[in-house]
Amino acid sequence: MAEYNTQILICGGTGCKSAESDEIGNVFKDLLNEYGLDDDVQVVVTGCFGFCEKGPIVKMMPDKTFYVHVTPADAEEIIKEHVVKGRQVDRLLYKDPKTKKSVSDSQHMDFYKKQIRIALRNCGFIDPENIDEYIARDGYMALGKCLGEMTPEQVIDEIKKSGLRGRGGGGFPTGLKWEITAKVKGDQKYVVCNADEGDPGAFMDRSILEGDPHSVIESMAINGYCTGATKGLVYIRAEYPLAVARLKTAIKQAREYGLLGTDILGSGFDFDIEIRYGAGAFVCGEETALIHSMEGLRGEPTFKPPFPSESGYLGKPTNVNNVETYANIPVIINKGAEWFASIGTEKSKGTKVFALAGKINNVGLIEVPMGTTLREVIYDIGGGIKGGKKFKAVQTGGPSGGMLTNDFLDTPIDYDNLISAGSMMGSGGMIVMDEDDCMVAIAKFYLEFTLEESCGKCSPCRIGNKRLFEILERITEGKGEEGDIHKLRILSEVIKDTSLCGLGQTSPNPVLSSLSHFMDEYEAHIKDGRCPAGQCKALLKYEVVEEKCTGCTLCFRNCPVGAITGERRSVHYIDQSLCIKCGVCFEKCKFDAIVMV
Amino acid sequence: MPRIKLSETAIQTIREVCASFDNQEGELINVLHKCQEKLGYLPAEVQELIAQELNMSIAKVYGVVTFYSFFTMIPKGEFPISICMGTACYVRGAEQVLNEFKRQLKVEVGQTSPDGKFSLSCLRCVGACGLAPVVMVGEKVYGRVSPQQVKQILAEHQEGCMREAKSA
Q1: Do B130 and A442 touch (CB under 8 A)?
Q2: Predicted ipTM beyond 0.95
Q3: Does domain A131-340 have CATH number 3.40.50.11540?
Q4: Do A358 and B29 make contact, defined as CB atoms within 8 angstroms?
Q5: Which of A13, A14, A328, B158 could connect to A48 by a Cys-Cys bridge, CB 3.0–4.6 Å?
Q6: pLDDT in tens, A158-177
Q7: Range of B39's domain?
Q8: Distance between CA B74 and CA B111 in Å, rounded?
C-alpha cells in the first residue's frame, strides 16, 4: 500500500451520497491530479459518519479536521488552504450552537461526546471497499483468535458472559441463542444475518453494512465455527443497492484472502456466505417469515416453536441474528466479555445504535451506552428540538413501539425500562415529535403502515388493524363518535392477544400508547372537533385577520390554487371552497395576518 | 386488462433467467428480481411463463409477486417518482409533498401519468433522514422538499425530455 501524508475522508453514507458526496470525491480527485498532489493525498469514501444533519461531511486525516455541509465547489479551497498551506477553512467548520465558536475535531462536538462506538467503530474511519483497512483496525483478529485459540464452547461462553442481547428488537440473549443452535444435531446448519430493516425511519443496519461490511462477515464466520454451520446467508433488502454492492465486494475480498471458503486460516473450518434478496415486506424482519422468504415463498410467519435454531431454513437448524448484533461480536472477542459487560445497565449491556430523526436539530446515526437517558440523547446529542419548538414525544420501536413523553425523559434507556414505559427498544428508530405533531395522526400513520405490511395470514391483524385504522381516520376527519376510544382500546387488546406473530402482537402499540399519554388530543378531536396540533386538515381552516392584513399580495401570489383574492393594499380573502389547506399563505405572511382556526 | 403479447426476445430472456437458477422453485424470488430488472415490470403473461418454467402453479407465482411491494405489475413511468414516507419524512411534511404531486400529476399512488412520463409511489425510509422530507426521481435524490418545489421538480424533468426530443 502506498503511503500518503494526508487522507481526505468523504462520507459515503446514503444521506451524504444523496447530497452529492460522490461528486465531491470526484472533484477532489481531479483537483489533486491537477495540483500534482495525488501521490501525497488520498481520497477515501467511507461509511456513514453519523452526523447526517451536517452532511456531506469531509474529514481530513491525520489532523481530524471535520468539515460540514461541503459542496463540490468547496473542494478547491480545501486543497489550496488546508492541504497546501495547512490552514483550516473556517467557514466550513462546525459551529457550536451555544458558543458560536468553530469546532474542528469531532470529539469536542456535543453530538459525539456522549457516544461510545462499538458497532459503528469503523464507520467513517475506513474505506468499506478495502479489506486491508478493516484488517488494519484489528479486523479478522477475532476470527483468528476463535479458530486458533478457542473452542466453540469457549466462544459461546464469552458471548454469554458479555450479556449481549439481540439488537433487532427482541433482546433475546445472543449467547444463549448460539448455544441452542450449537447443541441441536444436524448434518447441515445455517447462519443467517437479518438485514431486512423495514422500520420506517431507521437506517442503522444499512449504515453498518455500507460502512463496515467485514465486521458482519467476520461475525457470521465466528458463529459458523460455534454452531457448526458451514453456510451463511445474508437476507438484505433489494432497496439497499449500495449496501448490497459493498457487501458483495467484501465477500469477494474475504474469499480472496482465505477468510471465507474452505480451510479458513488453516484451521480446517469451512464457511461461505451468500446473499438473499428481500423484496420489501416488513413482516420479513420476523425470523420465521424471513426464512420462508429465503425459501422463495410468501414471507408469512409461522408458529414458534419450533424455533429456527431447531428447524429453520429448509428445515435445518438456523441461527438468525441481526446486523448490529453481529457487528458487536468481534469487539467482544478481542476486548473480552468483561470489558463489554462493564458498559451499560444491569440487564442490558454494551451500546445501542439509534437512528435519531424527526423534529430534532442533529439528525443522525448515534451509538450510546445502554442506560443513557432520553434527555441526554435528545438535548445533548440531538441538540434539542428544531426551531426552538416544544418537545412532545419520542417514538421508539417504530410501528411496534410506543410514544415516550416528557415524563420519561430521565429514564435510562434499556430493554426493560422501555418496555415498562409502554414502548420497546425495537431495532433503533427514534423519531422525535414536537408540538405541531398530532398524536392521533401519528397513530393513524403507523396503523396505515401496519395495514399495508400485514401479511394477511391471521385475521386479528388483517381485519383488526383495518378497523383500527378506519376509526382513527374517522377521528382525524372530524367524524369521531362517542365510544370510539373504548372501541379502539378493546380492539387493540384483542389484536395484541390473538395475533400470530410479533408484528401483529405489537401493531396496536402506537394506538395504546397515544391513548394513555394523549387522551386529551383524542377527546379534542371527537368532542370539540378540534385538532390541538393543527395537523388534521379536515378540522382546520385558514383565515385572514383583517386588522393585520396589509394587502402586500404575498399570500395571493404564492397560493398554488388561486383561492386567495384581494387588491394591493386592501384586505385579502381566502375562498374556503377552493383552499386545499396547504398552509403556504400561513408560512409566507410576514404580518401574522393569517391564522389557523 | 388487455393481454400483452410477449416478444420473442422477452420470452427468451425469461427462459434464460429461469435456467440460470436451474429452474428451481425455491429460487422464485431471485427469478422475479432478475426478470423485473430486465423487463421493468411483471405482467400476468410474464408470471405465466415463469410458472411454466419453474413447474409451479401460476397462483403461487402471483401470490409471491403481490406479496412483496418491490414487485410491480404496472410499468413504471419514464421518471419514477418515489416519496419517502418513513416516519422521519412524515413528521417533516412528506404527506403534503405527496398530496402536491398527486394534485399536479392527477394520479394516485401506484399509478403512472397517461403520457407515461411520471409514475408515483411511496417508499419507506431511503436512509437519508437528515434530508427529510426526501423525494427520489429515478436515482436522483431531492432533499428538504417543500410542496412549493414540486412544480419545479416536475418541470425539470419535463424540460429534460423536451430538450432531448429537440436534439434528437
Answers
A1: no
A2: no
A3: yes
A4: no
A5: A13
A6: 999 999 999 988 899 999 99
A7: 8-67
A8: 8
